[in-house]
Amino acid sequence: MTKTIYLMRHGQTRFNELKRIQGVCDSPLTDLGIEQATKARDYFQELGLDFTTVYSSTQERAVDTAEIASGRSDIIRLKGLKEMDFGTFEGQSETLNPPLTPGIGYGDYFVQHGGEDSMAVRQRMGDTVRDLLAKHDEGDVVLAVSHGAAIAQFYRGVLEHPPQVRMSNCAVLKFDVEDNDFSLDYIYDPINESLLYETKQ
To answer: For binding substrate, which residues are annotated in this chain's numbering (predicted)?
Structure first.
């Protein structure tokens, strides 16, 4: 019973451009971010995709990306797809971020600053994606637009050997799902029209 989900990061935002920490806080897409989302739409059109349903986090940058990339306005917004909460670090310079731990992320570092634990994000994303897929039938193809840290925690949770990849804005991850078993086919960068990662068969 195979389903397909394209999980995608939002386009560049003003805070991305300014190198500001952006989790639960939000900022609008830049002109480049709009161009990136448009490139993603071109890519989906080249593949001939007709998404059964389009999902997005509730944050503006993700919703706007989903609308542009899909060409649709009937986006289903899910809080479970939101970005990690970085607490009092929100809006501050990215230079203040602690070092990343491979395979884990930031761990519980931001909890002491009013933020979210990486493992809680992993659980939240996994539950949300499984729940939305449970509403679909075999052969359905869905798009879900989320965020960099949240997506990374998701695939670390569902893959035995997760890729070590830094996702560009509007990076597209294609998963085939059978009985809640996730298989990552590739990660595609629509701006440079190149693969950031491909699972070896």
So the answer is: 9-16, 61
pTM for the model: 0.96
What is the CATH code for 2-198?
A: 3.40.50.1240
Please report, as a single letter, which amino acid is at residue 124.
R
Instruction: Report pLDDT digits (tens) over 134-177.
Output: 999 999 999 999 999 999 999 999 999 999 898 899 999 999 99
Q: Which residues pair with 73 in a beta bridge?
A: none
Per the annotation, binding residues are 9-16, 61
The whole-angstrom separation of Cα 177 and Cα 75 is 21
| Binding residue ranges for substrate | 9-16, 61
**What does the alpha-carbon distance between residue 64 and residue 71 come to, in Å, rounded to a whole number?**
10
Q: Quote the CA–CA distance of 74 and 51 in Å, as a whole number.
A: 11
